[in-house]
Specification:
The protein is an alpha+beta fold and 709 residues long. 28% of the residues lie in helices and 23% in strands. GO terms for molecular function: SNARE binding; zinc ion binding.
C-alpha cells in the first residue's frame, strides 16, 4: 500500500522507512519506535450495538507467538506463515460459526476476509445484554457520583454547581447519580426521601471516617435514578453552599456543619477531608473488596473483564485546594520553602524547586487509584485554583496518580471563579467529558513485533501485567488517548540489506464497550449491550537503504510524541535540568548527523561549509526542530515561572495526547482566511513576518485546548 497510509492507522512508526540496523539508527540520531492510538475510530467497525464483528475464536492465531493472521502473512493452501515469527501454522478444518465450512481452507474468497484484506479489524470476544431493573437499578445501571469540596468560596462553588448541573444533563436518563460533599465532614444527599435531607459523617481518630457511609445512608438511597429524580438532584445541587454557612434552602438539613476552617497562622485555612471522603466513597462503590499487589496488575484482575459491581462507574471530584485533613493529608510547607526559587533567575535553582514540588509526597492517592482501577471505578479530578501563592497550591503532583491509575481525567483551573460563570470552561469541560464519543473500558493492550526487533520501553497511562510480560492494562481509553513504545534491533544484522525481513508490528487491543439498546419490548426497561471486543492492527515499514532515506520519510509528529514521553519520564526520574540537557543534546546530535550524512557539512576541521541548523533541505525535520524548541519552552519543561499544579496538569495531558494533538499543544497551528468562508493559507509559521506578509484578513490560532482569532 501507500507509504502515507500508515498515518491513518492506530500504529504510527517514527519513519516510513526504518533503520536497517542499530548502527544505521545511530547514524541518523533519530529514535526508532511507534505511537499507538488503540481506540481510534475505525470506519469499517463502528462502536455501536448494530455492529456485528466476527467471533474471536474464528480468526487464526499463530501457534508459536500467538499473533493474529493478517495480509502480510504468507498464505498457503494448507496453512500460513506468521510474518512476526516465521512459524507455519495449519488452517483449522473445523467449520467456522454457522457457515458450515472452514473460514480459510478451500475458501476462494479468503482474501476478502477482514483480517486479510484490512490492516485493522475488530472481532467479538463476548456479549451480554444488561436490562436495568426499575425497582433495583443498582448493579444494572451506570453510576456517577459528584464529590464536591464545599470549602471553596462562593464564586468558585457557583461554577461547581453549574458543572454538576451540566453533568446531570450529560448523563442518560437510565443512569444513577449521587451527590457527596466534603469539608471537615462528609455530606450525603438523600433526594429520594419524601423530605430530601443531608446526612453528615464526621472523621474518626484514625484519620478516616467515623463510620462507613453505608451505615449513614445506604448506597441505593444516595444513587438516585436520573429519570425519576432529575429535578430533585438539580434542586439539591442548588442548595450547596460554602462550608462556613450554617444555613441553606428549605428542605435540606444543614445540622452539624462546622465552620470548615482552622487557624493556619496566616489566617483561616480550610479543613479539607478529601482523602477520607474519597476512600469512603470508593469503598462504598465496591473498591473495598479488592487489593492491590505492587505496581503491576495480574491477568485475572479487572481490566480484562471480570465481574463488576456496576456496568460503569465514575466519580467526579471537585477539589478547591490542598487536601489537609485525615487520610491523605498534605501540607504546603514544601511550597513555602521552594516558592521563591520557582522564579529564580538561576535556572538550576528554579529547576531544583520545580523537581521538589513535582514529586508525590504520599502514596495514598496512587493506592486509592489502583483500588479504584481494580473495581473499575474511574476517578476524575477538577482542581479549582484561583488563590495566590500557597493558597493556590493543591499539590496535584501527589493527587495526580489517582487519575492516572484509575483512568480518569485531570483538569486544573488557575483562574476559576474570577471572570464569572458565563464564560468559565469548567461546566463545558464536564459536559464534554461525559458526552464524549464512546469510551473503551477494562482494556488490555499488547504490541508484538517481528523477530528482528523488540520493545524496550512503554510510555503512557498503561499498567504492566505482573504475570505476562508485554501485556498492559488500561482502565479507560478514549478515541484520542495515545501510548508510545521504544524499539531496538535484536542483532547487529538488523533487518538485512535486501529487506528480506520487513519490520512489522501488531497491536492487539481488547476492551469492553457499554452500548445503549432499544428498551425491552415487554417491560420498556432500559437495556445496554456490554460487548467485549478485540481490535487488531498490523503495520509494516520498508527498510531504509541509508540514513538519508530515514530523514526524508520521518514522521515528525510521531518522533516528537515519542521524545516527549521519554523526556517527561526522564524529568520525573532524574530531574528537570537533566531532561532539558538531554533534549538539547539530542537536537545538536540530530543536526550534526543530518549535516554529515547529507553531505552539507562534515566532521572535518578543514570543512568551511556552513552547518544547516534549520534543515532547509528536509521539511519533516524543520517541523521537528520547531516542536522540540517549543517543548523546551513549554509549561512541562520550562524551569522558571510555572506553578507546580499547572506543570502537573500539562504533563498529564501530554501523556495522553495523540501526535497531531500534541503537536498543536506544543506549536500552535496558525491559519489565515481571506474572509469567514475562504481559507487563504492552511498553516503559517509562528513569526511576525508570516503574519505581516500574508494577505489574510482573519487569523486563527489552534493550540489544542485554546483558540484565538
Amino acid at each position: 500500500g501507500s507509504e502515507d497510509a500508515g498515518r491513518d492507522l492506530c500504529l504510527r512508526l517514527t519513519s516510513r522507512r526504518v533503520p536497517e540496523n542499530a548502527a544505521q539508527k545511530d547514524r541518523t540520531g533519530l529514535p526508532f519506535g511507534v505511537t499507538v492510538q488503540p481506540f481510534k475510530p475505525l470506519p469499517h467497525f463502528p462502536v455501536d450495538a448494530s455492529a456485528l464483528p466476527d467471533p474471536a475464536d474464528e480468526v487464526a492465531r499463530c501457534g508459536d507467538c500467538f499473533g493474529y493472521v493478517n495480509g502480510f502473512c504468507g498464505l498457503e493452501r494448507d496453512g500460513w506463515v506468521c510474518i512476526l515469527c516465521g512459524n507455519f501454522s495449519y488452517w483449522s478444518s473445523d467449520p467456522a460459526g454457522d457457515r458450515g465450512k472452514p473460514r480459510y481452507k478451500r475458501n476462494a474468497r479468503r482474501n476478502e476476509l477482514p483480517e486479510i484484506a484490512l490492516p485493522e479489524y475488530e472481532i467479538e470476544v463476548a456479549r451480554e445484554v444488561l436490562t436495568v431493573n426499575p425497582r433495583e437499578p443498582l448493579g444494572t445501571a451506570p453510576v456517577y457520583v459528584a464529590l464536591i469540596d464545599t470549602t471553596a468560596p462562593e464564586e468558585t462553588l457557583e461554577l461547581v454547581r453549574s458543572a454538576v448541573l451540566a453533568a446531570i444533563e450529560a448523563v442518560g436518563p437510565d443512569a444513577l447519580f449521587g451527590i457527596v460533599t466534603f469539608a471537615d465532614r462528609i455530606g450525603l444527599f438523600d433526594v429520594q426521601a419524601a423530605a430530601p435531607s443531608v446526612r453528615r459523617v464526621g472523621l474518626g481518630k484514625d484519620g478516616g471516617l467515623a463510620m462507613p457511609l453505608e451505615e449513614a445512608l445506604p448506597l441505593r438511597r444516595l444513587l438516585a435514578p436520573m429519570g425519576a429524580f432529575k429535578e430533585e438532584l438539580a434542586a439539591a445541587v442548588e442548595t450547596i453552599t460554602p462550608a462556613k454557612s450554617r444555613f441553606g434552602s428549605a428542605g435540606f438539613s444543614r445540622l452539624g456543619v462546622g465552620d470548615g476552617t482552622i487557624d493556619g497562622g496566616d489566617g483561616p485555612v480550610s479543613r479539607r477531608a478529601f482523602g477520607p471522603a474519597l476512600e469512603a466513597t470508593l469503598a462504598w462503590l465496591g473498591a473495598d473488596a479488592v487489593e492491590t499487589r505492587g505496581e503491576g496488575r495480574g491477568a485475572g484482575d479487572v481490566g480484562g473483564g471480570g465481574d463488576l459491581r456496576h456496568p460503569s462507574c465514575r466519580v467526579l471530584s471537585f477539589l478547591a485546594g490542598l487536601p489537609n485533613l485525615g487520610d491523605g493529608a498534605l501540607d504546603d510547607e514544601i511550597y513555602r520553602e521552594c516558592a521563591a526559587d520557582l522564579d529564580s533567575p538561576d535556572h538550576e535553582e528554579a529547576a531544583k524547586a520545580a523537581d521538589a514540588l513535582g514529586q508525590p509526597r504520599v502514596d495514598f492517592y496512587a493506592d486509592a487509584g489502583a483500588r479504584a482501577a481494580l473495581a473499575a471505578v474511574v476517578v476524575d479530578v477538577f482542581s479549582l485554583g484561583g488563590g495566590d501563592g500557597a493558597a493556590a497550591f493543591t499539590d496535584l503532583a501527589s493527587v495526580a496518580p489517582l487519575t492516572e491509575q484509575s483512568g480518569g481525567a485531570l483538569y486544573h483551573y488557575d483562574t476559576v471563579g474570577k471572570g464569572g460563570a458565563s464564560d468559565a470552561p469548567l461546566p463545558r469541560d464536564v459536559f464534554r467529558l461525559l458526552r464524549a464519543e464512546s469510551q473503551a473500558h477494562h482494556c488490555t493492550l499488547r504490541l508484538r513485533t517481528s523477530a528482528e526487533f523488540e520493545v524496550v520501553a512503554a510510555y503512557g497511562a498503561a499498567v504492566p501485567d505482573d504475570v505476562y510480560p508485554g501485556l498492559y492494562h488500561v482502565v479507560r481509553c478514549g478515541p484520542g488517548d495515545c501510548f508510545a513504545f521504544d524499539f531496538r534491533h535484536k542483532s547487529a544484522a538488523g533487518f538485512g540489506r535486501r529487506g528480506d525481513c520487513p519490520p512489522t508490528a501488531q497491536l492487539a487491543f481488547e476492551y469492553t464497550a457499554l452500548l445503549p439498546l432499544p428498551p425491552d419490548p415487554a417491560t420498556q426497561a432500559a437495556r445496554y449491550l456490554r460487548q467485549r471486543r478485540r481490535r487488531v492492527c498490523t503495520a509494516q515499514a520498508r527498510v531504509a537503504s541509508s540514513p538519508k532515506d530515514v530523514f526524508v520519510t520521518v514522521d515528525a509528529e510521531c518522533v516528537v510524541s515519542l521524545l516527549a514521553h521519554k523526556i517527561l519520564a526522564t524529568a520525573e526520574e532524574k530531574g528537570l535540568s537533566e531532561a532539558r540537557l538531554l533534549l538539547s543534546d539530542w537536537l545538536v546530535i540530530l543536526t550534526s548527523r543530518f549535516n554529515h550524512e547529507t553531505g552539507v557539512a562534515r566532521f572535518d576541521p578543514e570543512d568551511t561549509a556552513a552547518v544547516d541548523g534549520a534543515f532547509t533541505s528536509c521539511v519533516p525535520l524543520q517541523q521537528m526542530a520547531r516542536m522540540v524548541f517549543a517543548l523546551l519552552r513549554s509549561t512541562m519543561l520550562r524551569p522558571r515561572g510555572v506553578q507546580p499544579d499547572e506543570r502537573t496538569r500539562a504533563r498529564a495531558l501530554a501523556r495522553r495526547l495523540d501526535p497531531p494533538s500534541l503537536s498543536r499543544l506544543l506549536y500552535p497551528r496558525l491559519s489565515s482566511y481571506a474572509d469567514v468562508d475562504t481559507q487563504a493559507f492552511p498553516r503559517h509559521s509562528l513569526t511576525r513576518t508570516a503574519v505581516t506578509t500574508s494577505n489574510g484578513a482573519v487569523f486563527l490560532v489552534d493550540a489544542f485546548d485554546e483558540f484565538a482569532t
